[in-house]
Design goal:
Length: 107
């Protein structure tokens, strides 16, 4: 088995970029469909403080924004596996960083 180790900076940057993925709410998922995922992830004791009042990800104060943050927290904490970004078919994996302002989505 041959192992390729990237050696030039452009190749290393590409490898790092490929690995950056986030899990967010699907654009067409309703608030009613998203709410159980938001509740479930916070009950798992993942850090939901950023989406609470005065938290760095509280705004926008919407079910969709808060659920995207918690979906991603769950996805990142559980190994970046596609099956950890399903949430009853209301989530999708993206390579576009959903972070905004002071709100940082982990990778």
């Amino acid at each position: 088995m041959e192992i390729h180790i990237p050696w030039n900076p452009a190749e290393i940057e590409l490898v790092v970029a490929v690995r950056k993925k986030w899990c967010v709410a699907k654009p067409d998922a309703s608030n009613t469909a998203l709410q159980p995922s938001l509740d479930h992830v916070c009950l798992l004791r993942l850090d939901c403080k950023p989406i609470q009042a005065r938290g760095s990800c509280f705004d926008p104060n919407t079910v969709r924004a808060h659920t995207s943050y918690t979906m991603n927290a769950y996805y990142q904490a559980n190994g970046h596996y596609n099956l950890n970004c399903d949430f009853s078919k209301t989530a999708v994996i993206t390579t576009s960083d959903p972070s905004h302002g002071a709100c940082r989505f982990g990778t």
